[in-house]
Amino acid sequence: MKKQLPSALKERLGGILGEEALCRMEAQSNAERRSVRVNTLKTDYEEAIGALEEKGFHPQRIPWCARGLWVENKPGLDDTIEYVLGHYYIQDAASMIPVTVLEPCEGDITLDMTAAPGSKTTQIADHMENKGALVANEYNASRLGPLKFNLNKYGVVNTIVTTMDATERWDCTMKFSKILLDAPCSCEGQIHNPDAMKQWSMGKVGRCSHAQKRMIENAAGLLAEGGTLIYSTCTLAPEENEEVIDHILEKDGGIRVEKIRLDGISTHPGIASWRGREYSAEVKRTLRINPLENNTEGFYIAKLSK
Amino acid sequence: MEKEHNATLDLKGREMLQGYGEYFVTTRECLSLSLEGLKIDSIGLRVATEDHGKIHPTVHAVQLLYQTPKKTIELDEEQTKKFIKNQEIETQEPDGGYIITNRRKPVDAGQVRHNKLRRI
Known about the structure:
Number of domains of chain B: 1
Shape of chain A: globular
Largest sheet of chain B: 5 strands, mixed
Distance between the termini of chain A: 45 Å
CATH topology of one domain in chain A: Rossmann fold
Order of helices and strands of chain A: HHEHEEHEHEHEHEEHHEHEEEEEE
Helix content of chain A: 25-40%
CATH superfamily of one domain in chain A: Vaccinia Virus protein VP39
Number of strands of chain A: 15
CATH architecture of one domain in chain A: 3-Layer(aba) Sandwich
Radius of gyration of chain B: 16 Å
CATH architecture of chain B: Roll
Structural class of chain B: alpha+beta
Number of helices of chain B: 4
Oligomer: heterodimer
Strand content of chain A: 15-25%
Strand content of chain B: over 45%
């Protein structure tokens, strides 16, 4: 099925991805496979594979996520007893990357700054084996319910849910060893999602970019010395990706960009300039994942340290 | 809860909190953080509610914390899905409270009355 992209977006994506890649992507059908992440707080990885196999989903390991599985795209994935009991989370395979790169562990004090609906929060809790402390923050009141529902469903114990505005500086003394800032964005990477495409506008890109810069400043201030901050979005907009990283490098001299190593996935380095604006050379260490190239949505990930 | 369902509640070294008729389980690390300046909505996993002096476990407590319950009713996948959707299941078990299991793993707490199993 040919994708109907707004013409202004199509023109932008041609500039970001290249015309050839964009044509290929537009002609490509939507994902033949879906992906799930096994929740080892409630079940065993091998047991979950067995249950999905038994139901004809033909699970296959995702190389870049230890608990991730490709499954056949057919009805019923959200109607199995294992899904109802929280044994797996239906999650795009690219969106599993930020937590994989963050590597939270039980000794960490971790912050998920924009947590709802909880896919990555529950993934963090799983990595931490439900130990240590995880602050799951969500400012949007209407998204708090789904977050808490998922934390309960997936059996997360080590969490404090907070309702702070991520764009404002937090007046607290606590510092975090690991922070995930999976920022709200214009969703340009979801080109297979007609709803996301309908809501796209250049105005939204600008508003998101402004808010993201405030969020990353706040996150950098909350990061402990020696800590790791992952910034990620599901957009392809340089204004919301490289420009945000360039902004924090300029604002906070203590922040560095780290190289990201991932197996079994095709990635592209961050872009060094966009529409006449040159970014710090460090942004080339960040990663871009083009939509549908790996059977996933588009994604951007930066690993920062202090 | 342990006595009613003849099961062992394993907190795995975690802490239980009580407030406003609800019980929560969380880690010691969560309780030791300096939370000043943060707007807190909730802490940990809600494991039970109190009603007229009686404590009812939540589905999450049963699934995560109940170890080797002895008073159980095993349901198959379709029955378990019906049970979770609050539909009644026919049973020959005597009246009383049970832990419902699927593939021998605790799923939730249920009550049998007059050969009908219901969710509590």
